[in-house]
Amino acid sequence: MLPVFVACYILVSVGIGFYVSTKVKNTRDFAIAGRHLPLPVVIATVFATWFGAEAIFGVSSTFVNEGLNGLVADPFGASLCLVLAGFLFSKYLYHQNFITLGDFYRKRYDRKIEILTSIAILISYLGWVAAQIKALGLVIHILSDGQIAESTGMILGTLIVVSYTALGGMLSVAILDFIQMIVVISGLLFIGWTVSDMTGGVNVVIDHARVNNKLDFWPKGDIYTWITFFGVWITLMLGSIPQQDVFQRITSAKSAQIAFWGSVFGASIYFVFTFVPMFIAYSATLIDPEHFQNIMAFDSQFVLPEFVIKYTHPFAQIVFFGAVTSAIMSCSSATLLAPSVTFAENVIRPLRPNMSDREFLKVMRICLVIFSGCVLLYALSSNLTIFGMVESAYKITLAGAFTPLVFGIFWKKANHHGALAAIIFGIGSWAGLEIIYGDLLLIPAQLIGLMISMLSMIIVSHLTQPLSLALATKKT
Nearest CA to 419 among 114, 127, 139? Predict the structure, then answer.
């Protein structure tokens, strides 16, 4: 019964995606939904930016194991990222009519910076999208009662998401996000209400979590513990600002004001609702401690779905897995679209500048299919957890793409020499430290990379001001 209902829901979602795809007339419709999205839809798309596999399975299992202290990156860093990105993109970039962030790097610096930052952004998406694919495999595996292996589930999930995203693009993503946000919020609230009856109330769960130090947010330890804590926080909060999916969702709004408030409201709703899966998963450990302690020892990501399967009635199961599937599909569709559009716009298009809009739309769709295959291979081969994939995704953009973006917006003296140095030395120092020292570093490697990136931008831009002025004079 349960697999049938969820399968029907997926088919309906795919059908809506196919219908919306008939409205896609050009690359702007495909990439940024023609910039026509109203406030409710923008809120839904921003909410769906993060509310996927990691918010339901990753964050909840991490809370059960580590408490709030383990969640500094997500939802705390992720929510602040959406607010900061909304401010930057709506106030400084919205009126530039860019299709991708790579367009900003090209206009502010040059073609070389555009390519380097676009590739860094593309690489960062491997971990994020792979987390969604891994979660789809997990859901399909559980719904089939173990008859379908997780790896096979990942393949099926990828095919489902790619089918409607490749046709409908951002327009399809936006409409489905709006529908799926309603399903996700109502579904998780219903499950939370059901679970609260089983535990004796919300206060019982909160009091138990407080007594067991699960609500302690700030770290306890020496200065290096605090530096690591803020390093993890900053990685997602700042490293995910130069991301195409965040940029696409915000700048798809029909006005700069809608873009800003859509990001603020979407971030706020996201932050609040990540606590619902946490509540449900932690409640499971109170209702049947022995059973779920055994599951946690094996893989804590199974706590939430196993609890729903074992302890809730069929209707609640349908609601829960419908909500989970909605969240993962809406998140994974946009995060597959974003890097594909970036690669097509900022790497391929300059090589063939005379392509017609129809030809370029075809290139975007081909890029999406190829990138989906790469992500699937990474998801199948990686041993990282869903939360681990997300946490590691944004180190490269923090070290290499964040500084050229922010300095390019706020510092007039930033030039392409400084941006090139920031990218090379930022990514180089981060990667070198990760390879040589790994987890032995007292300070996170990506934080050192960010500092070196900023210093490189400031020093090299200052030193090359006369050269930049000479080049500008020569051009004019």
Answer: 114
Closest CA to 141 of 302, 311, 270, 295: 302
E strand or H helix at 174: helix 150-199
Residues 288-308: tens digit of each pLDDT: 877 777 777 666 667 778 788
Residue owning tokens 């500094």: 72
Q: Measured between alpha carbons, how far apart are the two ends of the chain, in Å? A: 71
Strand-pair partners of 253: 37
Q: What is the CATH number of domain 2-394?
A: 1.20.1730.10
CA pair distance 218, 72, nearest whole angstrom:
9
Alpha-carbon span 340 to 373, nearest angstrom: 12
Instruction: Delimit the domains of the chain by residue range.
Output: 2-394, 411-476
pTM for this entry: 0.79
**pLDDT tens per residue, range 149-167:** 888 988 988 888 887 777 6
Residues shown for the chain: 476
Which residues, at least 6 apart from 207, have a Cβ–Cβ distance to it below 8 Å?
none
